[in-house]
Amino acid sequence: MSKIISGFSKLTKEGKIDWLAQNYFNNQPEIIQIIKQYWNVDEKLQQLHDDFIENTISNFYMPYGVAPNFIINGKEYVIPMVIEESSVVAAAAKVAKYWSTRGGFKTEVISTTKIGQVHFIYAGNKKDLETYFNLNKTELYAATASITRNMEKRGGGILDIELKDKTADLENYYQLHVTFETKDSMGANFINSCLEAIAKKFQKEDIEIIMSILSNYVPECIVKAEVSCPIEDLGGENPEKFAYKFEQAVKIAEIEPYRAVTHNKGIMNGIDAVVLATGNDFRAIESGAHAFAARNGKYSSLTHCEVKNGIFKFWIEIPLALGTVGGLTALHPMARLSLDMMQKPNARDLMQIIAAAGLAQNFAALRALTTKGIQHGHMKMHLMNILNQHNATAQEKESISSFFENKTVSHSAVIEKLEELRKPKINWVDITNETEIRETLGKLSQESKPVFGTMNAQQMIEHLSAVTQIPNGNLKIDVFVEDEKTARRRPFLDTNNEIQPGFRASFLSDTPTPTKFSSIDEAIDDLIIQLRLFFDAFEKDSTRTVVHPFFGELDFEYWKKFQVKHFTHHFKQFGLV
Fold first, then answer.
1. 459-475 pLDDT, tens per residue?
2. Which class would CATH give 64-110+220-371?
3. Nearest alpha-carbon partner for 467 in 518, 505, 429, 510
4. In which pathway does it act (predicted)?
């Protein structure tokens, strides 16, 4: 049956969800519950979010964090960041604190020009086109007057309109290349409206307009951020070596595209997080930044480093077309909050703040890569994600975080430790507590059935007595255990591992030994006596050793460890622990 639907956009939100559940989730009620649990309880706020895009059915939450301690041009900032990747916010905050004592970040806006283009096809004489353009250039400005009036009051508007010949690349292809200043607005709608008005005015019979659209490549909307300090101020065990390796790491990213892509991705971790937090267009920023990284014909690093005359210098130059008014920045309450948090920056200020965040993120990554390695810190930040994924309790999180404090985190190691914590705790039998042993064994009767094995209850008790007689010296077992076997087997006694059901030492018979006492109570009395003799024998001679028929020669401490394991094993045999 076809799942193609007409009129989906006209359905209510509930109707959209019901259709989705019926057609793609087999009416699973939990699916509807998941979708609805992310709705905001404030209906007006939810309606605001619903109206941002089309066919909205719910909200998708992203973590909103803050990185404090940024000093940018002498001014203190806390920077909001929206991102799903762990370690990004922590790394930015750590680097901000680091550079706060070394002069902070120095930033400057180099230029703020933005670009839009009218793309068209013209098959006539180029000279005639140039004449037409020059005669009508003033009219093209005039065509946008109603659109640019308010922008011009704020100091913005159209800076220039150029005719560009692109016929060498594509037959009959020309463009009007228009430069803009949009002040505190990102300006996408403003630029596109101007371009469409220009295109409409410029079009004539032999000029075919293909499209009019802004460009997200803005190589003349550039901001620079920099940190620098004397090499010895970098700190660490060997700041000279660190500075050298750091510089080489940046130079590798400058000449090796495979490395440069990952290098720049780390920069964009910091930049995109702040762009998202302020309601700006992170896709536009991403595409423009990567195009800028390839502007010289080869993809390269967006950051650069120089170690010269005892000074370490690290900087970034990047195009950032941002806005602090209009669009989502004006509509989204959290976007407005983000701008307020950063002391209500204008677009130029925001460019500098975001460039500093990107530089901080890159410094953090390169410092990790050239020292401990990226996984050391990165996986530590993933620790909570792993624990949350496996529903770790607060106590488990605290215990595992403490365990990995000075260890490298890996997914498998975390899971192994979590499973170890969750392994049922063993209630080891206290062989020194006669009262408890007597009371516990007193619960047994001749009808008691074993959980495993073939011994009955009394045979089990008498078996414990018999084995206890070996270290007492009352039962001689003519067994020789080779030193090699002792060395291999005895370490088991130092572990928390149990004797597993089904284990049978070679010196034991295949069938249970017949009982020698007339009742379970008498067997228990004898076992208590044998335990007393066990402790007395070693108390009289603490240096004595006795050969165990499986583990070899054991002293008192090892015999005691064996007894605890042995008693626990057989108590479990009858469900007593």
1. 999 999 999 999 998 87
2. alpha beta
3. 505
4. Metabolic intermediate metabolism; (R)-mevalonate degradation; (S)-3-hydroxy-3-methylglutaryl-CoA from (R)-mevalonate: step 1/1
